[in-house]
Amino acid sequence: MYKKNFAKKSFRFFYYLVAIGFGSGLSPVIPGTIGSLCAIPLWWLMTFLSLKIYYLIIFLSICIGIYLCHHTTNDIGIHDHPSIVWDEFIGMWITLIGVPSITWQWILIGFVIFRIFDFWKPWPIYWFDRNVHGGMGVIIDDIVAGTVSAIILHGLAYYSMDNNIII
């Protein structure tokens, strides 16, 4: 009996830990921004992988994140609680697909673009945020914000190279 309860509590601790971005979501101020910043070192480690493996990690992170965020949201009783920042991790990883080179300038530009879209939630991000519920609802708006941010980042990179602007 004790071992069964311990295993259940340990698993629950694991999914809370991942859902809150390994503790970054517990920041008393701007937890989404802190979570996005904490995603960058993990992203940097993934830059050594092939693009195929990188996409696989993002896909698995989304699948696992839907489950973890759904259960954490249900346990907390608040949809998309500010401490749940796994979605920010995923959004940043998607955004940084568009980074043309691994420099602090491009990472900062990607970070700022993602935070703007994630915070203001213009259409269609707003629509997904309001109309999709559960674990998918927690994550989908950040997937869309990350995708839009990656496209813009890639466009900026193309524009800067085409016009000899060094970033």
Automatic annotation (TrEMBL):
Transmembrane spans: 12-30, 42-69, 90-117, 137-159
Pathway the protein contributes to: Phospholipid metabolism; phosphatidylglycerol biosynthesis; phosphatidylglycerol from CDP-diacylglycerol: step 2/2
An example Gene Ontology cellular component term from the record? Answer: plasma membrane
Q: Where mainly found?
A: membrane
Record-linked InterPro entries:
PgpA (IPR026037), PgpA-like_sf (IPR036681), YutG/PgpA (IPR007686)
Q: What class of enzyme is it?
A: hydrolase
Catalytic activities: a 1,2-diacyl-sn-glycero-3-phospho-(1'-sn-glycero-3'-phosphate) + H2O = a 1,2-diacyl-sn-glycero-3-phospho-(1'-sn-glycerol) + phosphate
Q: Which SUPFAM superfamilies match?
A: YutG-like (SSF101307)
| A Pfam family assignment | PgpA
Q: Which domain of life is it from?
A: Bacteria
Task: Give the cofactors, semicolon-separated.
Answer: Mg(2+)
A GO molecular function term, named singly, is: phosphatidylglycerophosphatase activity
Keyword Ribonucleoprotein annotated: no
Query: The YutG/PgpA domain covers which part of the protein?
Result: 18-156
In short, the EC number is 3.1.3.27
User: What is this entry's stated membrane topology?
Assistant: Multi-pass membrane protein
Q: Which GO terms describe its biological process?
A: phosphatidylglycerol biosynthetic process; phospholipid catabolic process
Q: What does this protein do?
A: Lipid phosphatase which dephosphorylates phosphatidylglycerophosphate (PGP) to phosphatidylglycerol (PG).
Recorded protein name is Phosphatidylglycerophosphatase A
Q: Which gene encodes it?
A: pgpA
